[in-house]
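Q: What residues go here?
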């Protein structure tokens, strides 16, 4: 990574000689008098590096890209805009793993957050304080780097997203969900303290007791209240190995009731540490689940079941963490006991023992494979929803067995339940009101000129949620007008607006979310 960063610095330095910075008209000329002016770039490499995102669905160029060397530089830039007669928008960009241009800042400045790390991604400070061990990680760090740094102390964060190459600030601006969230809550529930640069350019340290409004606002706040430059992340003792179990179902009722049974078990000793699941719409999509887990024989067997079933099949995924070979017999006994209580298809339980890091970093393996096939940077019209427990069977029959019945596209559809009590209602993120709600993620890859078809299917999914009052909430939401945002946030909207007026009164921050218009 240091090598890549060095290469990147050399390229940007080189291009700044070839393309000396000409200040675009949308930016105030007084910027040139600031000492941070040299950290701005408008060269083609910089501009194209931020012009799209992982979704690869749209393109937008900012007026300039900012490469800060410290949080103070970001504070200076924002404060300058805030006090300028010609204010401009400022959008922090982590890795740009958004789908719908959430990092864009047309006519504004995109802050390349990775520039803060200077390639030194092991700069996580670990503090061990009994049950309250924590890591102070800067906002631009990738979660994989936080994991690697904490493992050196025998510790690790309590909850991970499925993919570890997003930044700390990027996932905390959304929620950060994954298979451990049923027990631990989302990543935003596992943070003790933040450093945030507000829309006035002030650097504020906040927590549940200190500036709580900013703390709760920033967590799940879609970048609207400030730039997160440090997060104090809760840790737990790390384990070394994972018993990774996958079970196949043909009956959605048995599948969901087993998932719900598993997420109701609070004790790590008697339940899984991680619970997720998938829907496989038809036999055509079975090979897509192969990954590092299933053998060719397993895939053949599951394909036969899918053909025979003539409808979606479901995959329940559970993982138990453990330390070393001495406890394997205990793990065997616990998992056996758990599986005896579950109603999967007989003969369709699959299990692997893998190093825990390999399990947590499993999507990176997929990334490597897809990159080698040229399939990683294709358009991704992803749609992520939270579906109330009482509506999940209705959702299944109208969508998986309804409009998507004939769908043969390249897709991974995640489905797993979470416990609402692990979320804090003070935080910005909007979730359903029921105690248990499901994550349903349509992770489409448009590989066969089928982008329009997939986007159309997403729209149909959203229409069904609306028409049949399924009360779904979008996760990683995308709306383009205030009325839709107001509906999305529901009762939280007035607090969201009040926090915006307090912490970013000129609506300078993260304009790509399209929630507020910049105020002059
Ligand atoms: P960016 O896309 O760069 O930014 C996202 C938004 O946050 C933008 O509005 C930006 O302005 C703002 N922002 C960025 N950095 C900061 C900061 N430091 N302070 C304040 N605002 C900031 N999410 C899950 O919850 N669970 C998953 O399992 C999961 N799996 C994923 C798998 C893949 C392959 C991908 C591509 C994404 C996945 N995501 C998942 C979504 C991911 O968590 C979000 O897209 C996240 O925002 C990505 O982080 P980023 O650093 O790329 O943010």
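A:
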């Amino acid at each position: 990574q240091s090598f890549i960063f060095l290469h990147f610095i050399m390229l940007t330095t080189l291009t700044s000689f070839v393309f000396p910075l000409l200040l675009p008209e949308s930016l105030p000329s007084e910027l040139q008098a600031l000492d941070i002016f040299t950290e701005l770039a408008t060269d083609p490499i910089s501009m194209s590096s931020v012009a799209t995102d992982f979704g690869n669905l749209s393109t937008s160029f900012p007026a300039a890209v900012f490469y800060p060397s410290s949080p103070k530089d970001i504070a200076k830039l924002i404060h300058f805009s805030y006090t300028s007669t010609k204010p401009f928008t400022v959008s922090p960009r982590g890795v740009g793993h958004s789908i719908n241009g959430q990092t864009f800042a047309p006519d504004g400045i995109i802050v390349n957050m990775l520039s803060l790390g200077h390639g030194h991604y092991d700069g996580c400070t670990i503090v061990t304080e009994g049950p309250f061990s924590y890591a102070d990680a800067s906002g631009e760090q990738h979660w994989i780097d936080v994991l690697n740094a904490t493992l050196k102390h025998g510790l690790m964060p309590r909850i991970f997203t499925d993919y570890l190459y997003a930044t700390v600030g990027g996932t905390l601006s959304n929620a950060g969900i994954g298979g451990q969230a049923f027990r631990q809550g989302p990543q935003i529930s596992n943070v003790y303290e933040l450093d945030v640069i507000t829309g006035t350019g002030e650097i504020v340290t906040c927590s549940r007791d200190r500036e709580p409004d900013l703390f709760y606002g920033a967590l799940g706040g879609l970048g609207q209240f400030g730039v997160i430059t440090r997060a104090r992340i809760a840790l737990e003792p790390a384990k070394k190995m994972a018993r990774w179990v996958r079970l196949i179902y043909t009956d959605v009722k048995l599948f969901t009731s087993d998932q719900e049974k598993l997420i109701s078990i609070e004790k790590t000793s008697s339940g899984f540490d991680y619970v997720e699941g998938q829907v496989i719409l038809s036999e055509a999509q079975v090979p897509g689940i192969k990954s590092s887990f299933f053998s060719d024989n397993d895939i053949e067997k599951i394909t036969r079941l899918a053909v025979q079933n003539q409808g979606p099949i479901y995959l329940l995924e559970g993982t138990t963490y453990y330390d070393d070979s001495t406890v394997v017999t205990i793990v065997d006994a616990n998992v056996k006991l758990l599986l005896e209580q579950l109603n999967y298809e007989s003969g369709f339980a699959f299990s692997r023992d893998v190093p825990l890091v390999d399990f947590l970093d499993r999507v990176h393996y997929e990334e490597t494979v897809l990159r080698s096939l040229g399939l990683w940077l294709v358009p991704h019209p992803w749609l992520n929803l939270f579906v109330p427990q009482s509506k999940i069977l209705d959702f299944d029959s109208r969508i998986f067995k309804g409009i998507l019945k004939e769908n043969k596209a390249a897709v991974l559809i995640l489905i797993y339940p979470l416990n609402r009590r692990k979320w804090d209602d003070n935080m910005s993120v909007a979730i359903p009101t029921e105690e248990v709600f499901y994550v349903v993620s349509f992770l489409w890859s448009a590989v066969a000129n089928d982008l329009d078809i997939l986007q159309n299917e997403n729209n149909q999914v959203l229409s069904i949620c609306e028409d049949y009052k399924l009360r779904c909430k979008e996760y990683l939401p995308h709306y383009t007008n205030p009325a839709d945002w107001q509906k999305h946030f529901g009762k939280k909207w007035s607090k969201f607006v009040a926090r915006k007026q307090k912490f970013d009164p000129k609506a300078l921050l993260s304009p790509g979310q399209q929630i507020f218009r910049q105020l002059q």
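A: Context that may help when evaluating the design: DSSP finds 16 helices and 18 strands in the chain. The first helix runs from residue 2 to 18.
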